[in-house]
Amino acid sequence: MDLRQLSDEVESVSRQYANAIGIARDDTWFLLKLQEEIGELTQAFLMLTGRARKKGRTEQELDANFRAEMADVLCHVLLMARHHGIDLEAEIKTKWLTTQPGEKNPSATERAVEPRG
């Protein structure tokens, strides 16, 4: 599955959910929903790694929850990118996959300060 196909499918689910409960998905909603999901991922990570109460959950349940929250974050990144008309595949190629075989791959810090263009 490619990102565009996944984005289409996630958009369909999100739109149905929003329609069913009467949510207006605007710029603010997309950002706050992503922030909420990152918080849930953080909590799942803390529980999985023993840095927060496990609330009676087994290791398998904690691991499953961590994986599920990771998926939620990815899906909400896709939704937000789609809402803002961002082609994530193109941006990933530009930002992360710009080196050719045999070339030195710049560090994340170097990529962050290099001008795009």
TrEMBL record:
Residues 97-108 have a biased composition (Polar residues). Residues 97-117 are annotated as: Disordered. It comes from the Bacteria. This is Pyrophosphatase. It comes from Nonomuraea purpurea.
